[in-house]
């Protein structure tokens, strides 16, 4: 019979032995060596029955198929755009997945997306050698105009969204801003006024710093409390 | 018999460590051992150029060791030297054994080790700082790497030699050791001087004990940084 050697929700560092025994299963952020389960990153230990998991506290975005991401155009090639989405390799947005318009051969592609344009796209495929393909075909995928773009830690994105989107809908409701959260940790905010955008930015930064605490929705609700009045006055 | 004024023969110098000291780096750390101070910064995993260096099967690790010109009592010429190239290579090999680079094809992890102040044992302090910086950058690792120099000063086996001991008139041997303390695997072992087989065994035991102490400090420092993040708000 194996045993857990660390407390649930505690911080683990690489090389730390989390559990002993073959009856536990390693999930993300950990690996098995002989009969021990060992952490491979800095993160919060999450024990779910027999599953030992580590939620990383830092690190780059790990691309997954189907994720909605926000990135900027860093290069234009003859058959598409190269987009930086904040992971190790750049992603490629091919012409055929970029727009439903007819694009003639040899046409100037910067007419559609130019350098430094920011796009919301979906990852259509991740190959074994980490080549990332993007698509712009789908609901809510577009080029971004105006607003603010801030960086959050990719591993903390689930907290910004909340359970069934509870946190993000709270933010949208209280600040009156349009918010898009990319799975790569980039968050786009656009509101009626600078004040409301600022409020949303502060709230997201707060969520990012407090991501591993409990009762976060209540804290954010309290933090945003005053903004309802601002909205009414404005 | 050789004696130390301020510490026991099996006692390392006072240690200190910090994580996250360089804002623009993906991960960074400082490791201090007595008067030796090493800084390490990690960038990446990021795209590797020139393209012919890319390996589609696994990523590569690049370590650059550098001493600041003011780090020693007599100014050293800045820039790469035969010595710094050698130390870059051995540090790279010491750190490589704890990384799993198959996860980062076509990319590179850059580690920059800078010696701010040198009083012997710089490569060991550099490796300690670099392994903490790698952990801070969120790169998956099998274990942290701890390093310390052991050796023989006169006729005594000692741990963590300083500069005056390295230059001891009656002869001294210094042996830097880097290991992964969890399973005790050694990833760096060099020796400058002569030691008998028995002495080496004794010295390695001493290195193992000291590395465990360093390991505890590294773990504590890393945890404190992220604990602090939780509690600050």
Structure commentary:
The complex is a heterodimer of chains A (234) and B (233). Chain A has a five-stranded mixed barrel with strand order 9-10-11-13-12. Chain A has a four-stranded antiparallel sheet with strand order 1-3-6-5, with no helix packed on it. In chain A, strands 2-7-8-4 form a four-stranded mixed sheet, with no helix packed on it. Helix content of chain A is 22%, strand content 33%. Chain A is of the alpha+beta class and 234 residues long. In chain A, α3 packs parallel to α5 and α4 (194-209) runs antiparallel to α5 (216-224). Chain B is an alpha+beta fold. Helices cover 30% and strands 30% of the residues of chain B. Chain B has helices at 82-96, 122-136, 163-166, 197-232, and strands spanning 15-19, 27-33, 36-47, 60-67, 107-117, 146-153, 156-159, 172-180, 185-189. Chain B has a five-stranded mixed sheet. The longest helix of chain B has 36 residues, at 197-232. The mean pLDDT of chain B is 92. The chains are: A alpha+beta (234), B alpha+beta (233). The interface between A and B is medium-sized, with 29 and 37 residues.
Strand order of the largest sheet of chain A: 9-10-11-13-12
Shape annotation of chain A: flat
Give the strand content of chain B.
25-35%
* Rg over alpha carbons of chain A: 21 Å
What's the average pLDDT of chain A? 87
- Distance between the ends of chain A: 63 Å
Sketch the major β-sheet of chain A. 5 strands, mixed, barrel
């Amino acid at each position: 019979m194996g045993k857990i050697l660390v407390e649930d929700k505690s911080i683990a560092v690489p090389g730390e032995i989390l559990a002993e025994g073959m009856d536990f299963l390693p999930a993300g952020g950990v690996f098995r060596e002989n009969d021990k389960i060992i952490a491979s990153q800095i993160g919060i230990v999450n024990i779910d029955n027999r599953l030992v998991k580590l939620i990383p506290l830092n690190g780059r975005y790990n691309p997954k198929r189907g994720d909605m991401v926000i990135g900027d155009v860093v290069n234009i090639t003859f058959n598409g755009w190269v987009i930086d989405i904040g992971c190790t390799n750049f992603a490629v947005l091919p012409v055929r997945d970029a727009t439903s318009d007819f694009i003639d051969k040899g046409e100037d592609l910067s007419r559609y997306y130019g350098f430094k344009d920011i796009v919301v796209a979906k990852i259509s495929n991740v190959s074994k050698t980490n080549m990332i393909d993007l698509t712009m075909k789908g609901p809510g995928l577009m080029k971004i105009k105006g607003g603010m773009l801030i960086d959050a830690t990719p591993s903390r994105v689930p907290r910004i969204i909340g359970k069934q989107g509870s946190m993000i809908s709270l933010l949208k409701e209280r600040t009156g801003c349009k918010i898009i959260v990319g799975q790569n940790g980039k968050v786009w905010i656009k509101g009626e006024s600078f004040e409301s955008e600022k409020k949303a930015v502060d709230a997201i930064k707060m969520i990012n710093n407090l991501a591993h605490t409990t009762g976060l929705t209540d804290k954010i609700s309290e933090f945003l409390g005053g903004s309802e009045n601002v909205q009414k006055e404005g | 018999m050789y004696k130390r004024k301020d510490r026991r023969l099996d006692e390392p110098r006072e240690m200190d460590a910090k994580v996250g000291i360089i804002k623009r780096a993906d991960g960074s750390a400082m490791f201090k051992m007595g008067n030796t101070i090493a800084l390490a910064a990690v960038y990446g995993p990021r795209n590797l150029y020139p393209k012919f260096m890319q390996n589609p099967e696994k990523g590569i690790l690049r370590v650059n060791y550098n001493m600041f010109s003011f780090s020693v009592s007599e100014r050293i010429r800045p820039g790469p030297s035969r010595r710094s190239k050698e130390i870059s290579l051995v540090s790279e090999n010491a750190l490589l054994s704890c990384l799993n680079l198959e996860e980062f094809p076509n990319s590179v992890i850059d580690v920059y080790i800078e010696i701010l102040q040198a009083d012997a044992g710089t490569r060991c302090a550099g490796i300690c700082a670099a392994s903490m910086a790698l952990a801070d950058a969120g790169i998956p690792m099998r274990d942290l790497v701890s390093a310390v120099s052991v050796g023989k000063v006169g006729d005594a086996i000692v741990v963590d030699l300083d500069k005056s001991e390295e230059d001891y008139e009656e002869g001294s041997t210094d042996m830097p050791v880097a290991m992964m303390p969890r399973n005790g695997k050694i990833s760096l072992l060099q020796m400058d001087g002569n030691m008998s087989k028995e002495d080496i065994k004794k010295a390695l035991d001493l290195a193992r004990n000291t590395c465990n102490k360093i390991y505890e400090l590294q773990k504590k420092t890393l945890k404190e940084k992220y604990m602090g993040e939780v509690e600050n708000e």
